[in-house]
Design brief:
By secondary structure, the chain is mainly alpha-helical. It has five helices and three strands.
Length: 106
Amino acid sequence: KESQILITDWSGIAFDFAFAFHRPVIFADINKKIRNDKFDLLDMPVAEEDIRNEIGIIWNIKEDIGSAIEDLMNKKINYSKLLSKYAFSFNEKSQLNLLKELGLDT
């Protein structure tokens, strides 16, 4: 609650932190933890890759963390816009639209 920023790797906690507290994230630029070694067969973008630069910055761990923090604090992030882009609002209308898009409406 009191932290102004989060420093993490590829952890999903970054999304919880950014969207719940409207605070930025520094992502340490390290190798991904891949649990499904056939993920590239899906030919789909990986959400974590797309969103990292939107909710924070990627930090080269060979560089000074102070510069990364300064860059991050100067970055303007519109959390409301990002929430509407990446998160569902599960009211009755949005649930029906989702079911329709999935072809599950009856």
